[in-house]
Amino acid sequence: MKVIAIMRPASYLTESARLASSMGFKVVTAPMIDVVDKTDANFKGFVSRVMEGESDYVIFTSANGVEFTLLKLNSPEEFIEQLNKMHVVAIGPKTESALLKNGIRVSIVPESYSSEGLVEHLRGIEGMVVEIARSSHGAPELVNGLIEKGAVVHETQVYQIIMPRDERHTRLMEKALAGEIDIFAFTSSMMVRNFMAIADEMGVKDDVIRIMNEKTVGAIGKPTSDTLSGFGVKVKVMPENYTFEELLRECREHDC
Predict the structure, then answer these.
(1) Where are the domains of the chain?
(2) Consecutive 10-residue runs of the chain (256 residues): their mean pLDDT?
(3) Is 129 helix (H, G, I), strand (E, B) or coil?
(4) CATH class of domain segment(s) 36-161
(5) Tetrapyrrole biosynthesis uroporphyrinogen III synthase domain: which residues (predicted)?
(6) 152: which residues sit within 8 A by CB, 6+ positions away?
(7) Domain spanning 3-33+163-255 has what CATH number?
(8) 138: which residues sit within 8 A by CB, 6+ positions away?
């Protein structure tokens, strides 16, 4: 039974571990990132444009983005009613599910669940007003790509990503150093950076990287893969569909 390190936010850990266990993995968990509410200076304008019908597209890049947006509103029902009059875009199936659960119709889900996939999918948007509600660590490729296509882009950061720290992180590093982790699963660049920061703080970063390169490292998305490469880590698995389930499936097949 292969041991996989899952480092997703605490809110995803239980379900992620259950899914991994059902696919035959032994699981070690340590959340390298967590999410907390954030309201930036752009949020009021975002809500105003949606309520006034001035926006053409509203993009959500995560289920968290959906939930944190709605939590800030005094009248979410009216906001949802206005959203349903415009094009609502979900980056992938989990985000789509969160939107549908809240009664929001989804117009577009790209074939490739990534910022690049969204940019490629959206056509004929020159002069269109595009809203993006996402985290404080969203990839710049989305905004830049839409602007290059001639869209008027507004971004609001509705939550931020932080680095938790407890005994699970020390235990994960100790297991990694002992060669007891077979697969390292990374789902974001921030997760990679926090993982490396903890390893560096413990004085074991070089050793951990060496060991990771002897094991299997999986990444969701090119930005995550590029961040790992920047630390000298070889990514052996990157699924075409950017979902955690697909990452698990390909890690299992790679290690068979």
Answers:
(1) 3-33+163-255, 36-161
(2) 94 92 96 93 98 98 96 96 98 94 97 88 96 91 96 97 91 96 94 95 97 96 93 95 90 76
(3) strand
(4) alpha beta
(5) 17-248
(6) 127, 128, 129, 130
(7) 3.40.50.10090
(8) 61, 115, 132, 155, 157
